[in-house]
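Minutes, structural biology subgroup

Action item carried over from last meeting: produce the structure token record for Secretion/DNA translocation related TadE-like protein (Terrabacter aeriphilus). EB confirmed the sequence was re-checked against the source entry. Recorded below for completeness.
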Amino acid sequence: MLAVAVVAVVMVLGTGCLVIASAVLASGRARLAADVAALAGAGAARDGADAGRACALARQVARTNDATLSTCSLEGERLDVVVTVQPVWWPAVAVARSRAGPRS
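Output recorded by EB:
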């Protein structure tokens, strides 16, 4: 009986660790996707793209990194993005913001 209880506790703790790891990994993926998307969009803006084209490129880069672009705004050559990533075993989405462009 004690062995069954120990196995149950180990399984519950292991499952909890997997759930937390899922959230942590999604957070890292969201930060990476936001940074890369912002850099891609700001690079396009620097090369003369308007806000629509720069944000479309940022959206494509975010999607390539398994993220969803929530917001995108361009001021001059500076691009601000917010992306989300849905963790596998966590109910809330991971959100990350990033800004790229020349210093003001």
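Discussion: The chain has two helices and three strands.
Next step: EB to file the record with the rest of the batch.
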